[in-house]
Amino acid sequence: xxxxxxxxxxxxxxxxxxxxxxxxxxxxxxxxxxxxxxxxxxxxxxxxxxxxxxxxxxxxxxxxxxxxxxxxxxxxxxxxxxxxxxxxxxxxxxxxxxxxxxxxxxxxxxxxxxxxxxxxxxxxxxxxxxxxxxxxxxxxxxxxxxxxxxxxxxxxxxxxxxxxxxxxxxxxxxxxxxxxxxxxxxxxxxxxxxxxxxxxxxxxxxxxxxxxxxxxxxxxxxxxxxxxxxxxxxxxxxxxxxxxxxxxxxxxxxxxxxxxxxxxxxxxxxxxxxxxxxxxxxxxxxxxxxxxxxxxxxxxxxxxxxxxxxxxxxxxxxxxxxxxxxxxxxxxxxxxxxxxxxxxxxxxxxxxxxxxxxxxxxxxxxxxxxxxxxxxxxxxxxxxxxxxxxxxxxxxxxxxxxxxxxxxxxxxxxxxxxxxxxxxxxxxxxxxxxxxxxxxxxxxxxxxxxxxxxxxxxxxxxxxxxxxxxxxxxxxxxxxxxxxxxxxxxxxxxxxxxxxxxxxxxxxxxxxxxxxxxxxxxxxxxxxxxxxxxxxxxxxxxxxxxxxxxxxxxxxxxxxxxxxxxxxxxxxxxxxxxxxxxxxxxx
Length: 587
Prior knowledge:
The protein has three domains: about 130 residues, no CATH class; about 130 residues, no CATH class; about 300 residues, no CATH class. It contains 26 helices and three strands. A three-stranded mixed sheet has the order 1-3-2, with no helix packed on it. About 35% of the residues are buried.
């Protein structure tokens, strides 16, 4: 953080002058007890953690730092690493981190370092709680699994210098070893009776087959060719050599690696249970509680989460009935489809970045690009996603839109707010503009990140007049958000029911039918997705409710002095942390 270092250096100079004038005979022992010394030692230690953790994977390093050498960090061997159920070495390392972190006195640290200390203590303590449940972890899933995300991460591997191209090609060559380690892990799960259901297996295999079915027209070939030409530092002959080499690696290494993964997973068919939640496995409830802490950032009992969800659901249903009673035509307009004044995503984002300044701090000048998911991957990737830039460049900022999901005007408007302004892109760059310590980029909190983006969706109804072709755009946008909030709440309650209370598909179906969802195929699809992605909906919705509740508590506490933009600034400056830490420093 450059601004912090400027102040830090100045305070050292003042401190040294005072020491020389007033305490020249007291020696260096006095200095070691000063606040600035504690801060310096703490930042040095967190930098050690960052360097150690970020260097474990070339992919992690590249997406964290565009130019690691400038920070004195050597590039690791360009491989994807391996997956193992033996975490003893990692747990010893984390235990050592905790012991060292506990030696720092919070009252001698700056506010920023206090936040980092609290976050790291909670993070490593939570990671250590996984010990007995490692085989319940799952790297593969149809939408969020590594086999689905890896092609996108590799396709978006930015070429800053020649070495990046060499690293990228070597990473492609290492996919086979990486997938082999995943198969060994899955074999352990199979022997322990913890392998995925055949339904989930089929969905993963379909996704893998879709990626490799047309080797000559695989989208990674097209993307690499474009990137090499855009790189612009090679002769045309050398470009063609690299393109040919890339094609050979894709066909000789990557596609066979996916085929081996398919064959290996197929050999475990029938060894898992029928689709069911974590509650049906030994230690499943404890593992679910671990996910709520590690992935969602929540440390409250499941029963309390469930109660809060039901309260919000009741509130939103009541509000929706009230709106539709007063304006019954809104439902029909929303169902028939409301158009956008401008359907160009970049233009929508540009207008959003200006509109939000009424309620959010100025985002400043931000460069970004909207891309569309390749047709071959549309069926298996999320509706939209944002790729975070390296911390040392702040760019590129890329938002992907999946065109397979046909969106109404309000839905595209909401999606771009979630991924762009004031959602992921805005939150990431605003926090980065304060130049926090590097470890804050590497260790984050999914509940904060996705909860913030969902909260951002709830805040944009007042801007709808600039986006929607409608006689009552704000009311239409508010109704759309209420409907989305109700759906997310229902799915979050289902998540708890399936994974913590052991609901089967029949019980889940009864719950959904109470809200008018009776189509058997829709129920089956919702149930299957939640089985495959435990706690995922809670990252979005429980995260959102934490921001909503913080806002309400601050309103009550401050009364007429409450300022929404100031509240948002505090949240953004604190950055992605588990919710107990966020509440501590906001309150």
